[in-house]
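note to self: dont lose this again. the chain is below, predicted strucutre after it. 157 aa total, dont forget to put it in the shared folder this time
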Amino acid sequence: MSQISPSKVLAEVAAAVPPACRGNVVIIGSLAVGYHFFQNDESKAVRTKDVDCVLEPFHAAVGAGQTITRQLQDSSWQRMLTGAHQDPENAVTPVDELPAVRLYPPGVDTESEEEWFIELLTVPESAEGVGNKWTHLAGIWRKKIFSDSSCLVSRLH
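---
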């Protein structure tokens, strides 16, 4: 885990995400909380390993996820290669074995536990779709369907 400045990291993520997709990205988790409390003080940091990005609304999440993932990869963001389920998807990969979209920013040591990465998640298709499950991101990766509505969020604009 790294100590990161919420405002610096969110500025980097906002600059990297395609402008047309920024309205589909909601930052959740410790980075959102840190930004809420420390947005005007770059000397403050939060301890986290990832930038949790929820893509919404559900009907636009797959397209936004594809666009964001391709742009980040084209900008030299690096795929996480450690942990389970990190091999690229193919046509016969079972859903429960698909890799998550987790990317490190350019130029970092992806082997270091001090570096952060971005992770793409989405909201459930309906209110009945509670719990976590994985779904195809049309030939790129999988995305986790996230259903915890109790967390603080920050919009990426």
